[in-house]
Amino acid sequence: MEFSAFVFYFFATVLILAGLGVITARNPVYAALFLVLAFFSAGGIWLLLSAEFLAIVLVMVYVGAVMVLFLFVVMMLDIDFASLREGFWKYLPVGAVVGALIAIEMGLVLTKGFAGKPMPAAAATITSQTTPIKCETNICELGRVLYTDYVYPFELAALLLLVAMIAAVTLTLRRRSGAYAEKYISPEAQIAARPEDRMMLVKMASEKEAPEEPVAPAGAEGQ
Amino acid sequence: MSFDVSNLSLAAAEVFVALMILAIMLTAAFVRGIARGLAYWLSQLTLIVAVFITSFTIMETGSDFDFAFNNMFVRDKLGDILKLMVYLSMMVALLYGRGYLADRKLDRHEYYLLALLTTLGMMVMITANHLLVLYIGLEMMSLALYALVAFDRDTTRSTEAGMKYFVLGALASGLVLYGMSMIYGATNGALELSAIHEAVTSPEGNKTVLLLGLVFLVAGISFKLGVAPFHMWVPDVYQGSPTAVTLILSSASKLAAFALAMRLLAEALPGLIGHWKTMLLFVIAVSLVLGNLAALIQHNIKRMLAYSGISHMGFMLMGFLSSAEASVGTVGYSNAMFYAIAYALMTLAAFGMIVLLSREGFEAENIEDFKGLNSRNPWFALLMLFVMFSMAGIPFFVGFFAKLSVLTVLLKAGYLWLAVLAVVMSLIGAFYYLRIVKFMYFDEPTDNAPLKASGELQIMLSINGVAIALLGPMSGTLLEWCKSAMKTVGG
User: Domain coordinates of chain B in residue numbers?
Assistant: First the structure.
């Protein structure tokens, strides 16, 4: 067996086992960790296909960011997973019917849908009209396509993220009011504060004459 | 076609609006006190300049259509006219909504930013020639709208409406995307609309997957248009969102959804017309019956207008249906476009009246609030009468001509029974429109507070109402206009 074939089968086996682990693990933290393993093995397969940039992005984005966030959520929020699993047998018949339907549909599409003579290849799909740049690496090729042929949807996608940002800020940002108002100091005011505003230096004599009257007894205050 | 400056100039309006959004966002962040007024006026300025840019593009380029950005962007007459209509309805909606938002302390500058972003999404959708761009435009429009619906975040009704719209809208977007992916697979990797058209019309190939994709697309389009049986969100969202947002939802977003239907059904998939026409037939019949019957029992005028909108969109789709017959051809599409524009005009005026009657701490959303409007202010009662008569399809308002034009092509296409159903349902529908007229003229007012609306709102509403009355006899010109827009659409 060739070495690359061996590597492929190795990663593929791990991927499938990890995938099974995701859905069978009882502990959600284990399930999330299995998913991390699945991402790693998928990244390995992509590396094998010499899609090195995608492989690294997969590991960085999904493992590094998404899954860590997910683990945080699982650990921090006290979700009662036992109660989520409760209705399993009750919902099983419905789920089985839906699952069977989807399986049949997918089978039909795969065996019949795409079978037979394919349609003529699309005539006028994106054909790069820009001066081709010789690319040897994945990332160069991706960048070339993104910033030339697909620049329009790429820029629009950036605006889409802007929509999400503005919407999130609009719907959640609150200027404090009510009970919190007195505790809240706006950052601008904090930055603009000068030492003189915070501390008052008072000149006073180093010695004081003894008080003539005794201090009021405790308990007299605060009535 | 290479990536050069002449290519960019075709999309000048889109680029300009996008840059203005960024400019307004940054400016408003630094000027605290006057941010809201500034954002409002800059947004209006943006839309006005966009009108000029688009009109200029129409006059400048003699060709029927031009492509840019590797054929992902198309400039054609259909897109130009629809974009102009979207700008106009957004301008009117922002103008109507301003005082309403100020009364409710909602006139933050983010409102105008989101409104412009939703406009940009609509523009992208209208000029899309590529499934990917079409989808991004759809998402940009919808995401901004979800946030706008929930804009009044301290009222339960608004957040509930936002949540409902978001969940169902995300589902619909998923359906559209799923459908697109199947079409992509079935046509052997075509994403460009004309390429899909070619691939679909060729006799070879297996059509099963294509049809499955079509089902999802029709469902998604129906959701965005708000027609039955995908209408569940419409009444709740119309009622729950601030009326200023309902104005946008019911006018500009319907025009954009019309563009979505045009691009997908009429331009990309006319090869499957025999299939989607059957689906539309069902959708139309259900919408007509359900929309009109459910509107009868509403006491909330926003809900009533929502249900009436469902039946209006059913009417509009009849134009698409008729285009399936060779005897009608693209006239069906152009009449549907006329209907969509006329509906946007009417619905803006209708919700504008609600804004006019509302004031700080009071929302004129029950039909009883219109009681005795004639004795309170005869001029606006007359305008509301125009709107209601026009929606009911009474001659000689613009709504009558819109209905007439659609029914004519429907009869020409041979759907006699559907035409009869449509007329019967319009007659039933006339009841709830005329009930409001009766309230205004023959009942005593329950609420005698003077109408306090800004001068600009009153003037614009008057123009809008008079336009409904005057555009009726002039509808021939508008129809010709729509017809010329369909020149580039293959039958």
Answer: 272-491
